[in-house]
Amino acid sequence: MRVLTVSGSVRRESTNANALRALALVAPEPLRVEMVESLDTLPHFNPDLDADGATPPPPVAALRARLRAAEAVVISTPEYAHGIPGVLKNALDWLVSDGTLVGKRVLLLNATPPAQFAYASLAEILRTMNWQVIGAVELPLRGKKLSGEEIARHPDLASRLRDALAMLNPSG
Hints:
By secondary structure, the chain is α/β, with parallel strands linked by helices. The chain has one domain: Flavodoxin domain (Rossmann fold). The chain is built from six helices and five strands, in the order E-H-E-H-E-H-E-H-E-H-H. It is globular, with a radius of gyration of 15 Å. About 35% of the residues are buried.
């Protein structure tokens, strides 16, 4: 099973990105976990560039192709002013018209609880887009400044991540 992860932060060593890197490290075979690391390369959403018959900008086409190829998606994002970061909202806006993502299984990974407003908003956006939000998992990393490797080596955190991956299995 191919899982694509998306961090709502563009910081290179963000807590959210490191949690997703750890997820890839603890993933059992045959799961393949890959991360989108280029949300900041997407142009600002412009419906004129996404009209029927138009060829989307190359970074948008690449993101859509990666998402289509994945069987499930995990999103981890910081919360800014009780909302999702603009870069993540911009990416989601580019995906609204792409009907191939309808029904896509998605898990939300909250790496910095008690952040909750961004996750409620994100779940609402994804459900509106007809993605299948299968759940949300909290990983208590706020203020810990751990690398992906350190998170993956931590017994409790690694166990929580493996449990999150198990939720992605459509056969239960």
